[in-house]
Write a structure and sequence with these properties.
The chain folds into 2 domains: 55-246, Growth Hormone, Chain: A; 254-450, Growth Hormone, Chain: A. The protein has 450 residues and is mainly α. It has helices spanning 51-57, 62-73, 79-91, 94-122, 124-148, 152-161, 168-179, 184-215, 220-238, 262-289, 295-314, 323-337, 339-345, 350-360, 364-378, 384-412, 420-432; strands at residues 28-29, 46-47. A two-stranded antiparallel sheet has the order 1-2. The longest helix has 32 residues, at 184-215. Helices cover 66% and strands 1% of the residues. Helix 8 (184-215) runs antiparallel to helix 9 (220-238), helix 8 (184-215) runs antiparallel to helix 11 and helix 11 packs parallel to helix 14 (350-360). It comes from Streptomyces triticagri. One of its GO terms (molecular function) is transmembrane transporter activity. The chain crosses the membrane at residues 70-89, 95-115, 127-146, 263-287, 293-315, 327-344, 350-375, 387-410, 416-434.
Length: 450
């Protein structure tokens, strides 16, 4: 904005001081000459919509660790589908395949926070790569047991070993927080990018797995996932310049679960996961009921696409106000938008349902980005990976719960009326936000309101 008392004509405008480490040339275009006498007002700065993302990846090492993280994260959307197809093809039982993958999910919920605690205590490179190697051996052992016709109990044991896989998204977010620890706006952009990356990987992963397992051979999806996981994690952990240092707390810190507001926030993640889990099962049942079961993946992909696009746009915006209040607004929007699939299902049209899910997905990324930002705000920096992994564990538990609830409602109601389940779960998550006792942006505990 021009000053009320302009400088002398011969004095050019001095640029505001910037941190040379993060400055990116060309993102903001400023009028070259602001000398007086012309009678013209200076041009307003024009900012590129991609400037926040260019700023992130201008930091040395960020592109390499992001590429490695994406390679390591893609298999997270592949392993379950690959295991189901592989086990069902060998044993002729989807019940066994489902039980094996459910066991792996339960093992992950138990082991993942401990793995994250080791990452916080000893560093990402020292823990993540060995933990990934153990998980990869579990997947390879699963392939060998399936191929050799080993007893069913060996499948459960092998798949449970994959629970040591580190939380790759959480480690990436920890790096962004370290690099931009004094820049909340940049951290917001980074969290938005990571959420969009999550949506992309979980949208492409199942499609890639199903293609490999059916076009090549049943074990192809698992073997490809192992290769991507190991290569991606090796590249990610090799970027030592961006790795956050191990922070030894001055005194013994309590578990992140004991932080004020953390338990209600984890309950919010659980209820939000129930939205996703129930939506997936109900959509598969709805497409099958309409005689187009293969279309379920495409329809669900539209929901993920809406979320990913919203996440990228969100990263270019700036917000003010407490995070807990923003989370309530996001969940209010999610609750409202989740009524659209219910209304669209009554038409009996899969294209209409797909459009409704595309719009409903717009609320997903803002909710997850804000929730993860709040997790970071509530968690002590020395246990940051553990706090974010607890959130992911709650989300996965909610997905499993939502899948079971969605299946029950589909069987006992109809696939159409079952779409009320994700809307109810979103409403429950909204109600649970009223119990969150967050911190403000200054790091001070917010007072509980009556």
């Amino acid at each position: 904005m021009p000053s009320a008392h302009p400088a002398p004509a011969a004095s050019p405008r001095q640029p505001a001081p910037v941190d040379h480490h993060f400055a990116v040339a060309g993102d903001v275009l400023i009028a070259a000459d602001r000398s007086g006498g012309s009678g013209h007002r200076p041009e307003r700065p024009r900012r590129s919509p991609f400037a926040p993302y260019r700023r992130l990846f201008a930091v040395p090492g960020t592109r390499a660790f992001t590429l490695g993280n994406l390679l390591a994260r893609l298999p997270m959307g592949m392993f379950t589908v690959s295991a189901v197809i592989m086990i069902a093809a060998a044993h002729g039982s989807y019940a066994l395949a489902g039980a094996v993958t459910a066991t792996g999910l339960a093992a992950t919920a138990f082991v993942a926070p401990w793995t994250a605690r080791l990452v916080d205590r000893y560093g990402q490179a020292r823990v993540a790569l060995p933990a990934t190697a153990i998980a990869a051996l579990g997947s390879l052992a699963l392939v060998l047991c399936v191929r050799s016709g080993a007893p069913a109990w060996t499948l459960f044991l092998c798949y449970a070993a994959t629970a040591t896989t580190p939380n790759t998204g959480g480690m990436a977010r920890a790096r962004w927080r370290h690099l931009f620890r004094d820049d909340p706006a940049a951290r917001h952009t980074a969290n938005s990018f990571e959420q969009a990356a999550d949506e992309l990987c979980f949208m492409l992963g199942p499609v890639l797995a199903a293609f490999l397992c059916t076009a090549l051979f049943p074990e192809a999806g698992t073997l490809t996932g192992v290769a991507l996981l190991l290569a991606g994690m090796a590249l990610f952990t090799a970027q030592r310049s961006t790795e956050p240092p191990v922070r030894r707390p001055a005194s013994r810190t309590e578990s992140p679960v004991r932080a004020p507001g953390m338990l209600p926030l984890l309950a919010v993640f659980l209820a939000t996961g129930a939205v996703f889990g129930s939506l997936e099962v109900i959509t598969v049942a709805y497409a099958d009921d309409r005689g187009h079961p293969a279309a379920a993946g495409l329809v669900l992909g539209l929901q993920a696409a809406g979320s990913g696009a919203a996440g990228l746009v969100l990263g270019t915006l700036s917000f003010n106000g407490p995070l807990h209040r923003r989370l309530r607004y996001c969940l209010l929007a999610m609750t409202a938008l989740m009524t659209l699939p219910l209304a669209a299902a009554t038409t009996g049209s899969l294209p209409v349902l797909g459009c409704a899910l595309l719009i409903a997905g717009i609320a997903t990324a803002p909710t997850m980005v804000t929730g993860m930002s709040l997790i970071q705000d509530l968690t002590d920096e020395s246990r940051l990976n553990e706090g974010m992994t607890l959130a992911v564990t709650a989300l996965l538990t909610g997905i499993a719960t939502g899948s079971a609830t969605g299946g029950w409602s589909t069987d006992h109601l109809t696939p159409t009326t079952a779409y009320a389940t994700p809307a109810i779960a979103a409403c429950l998550a909204l109600i649970l936000t009223l119990r969150i006792r967050p911190r403000t942006h200054d790091g001070q505990a917010a007072a509980r309101k009556p």
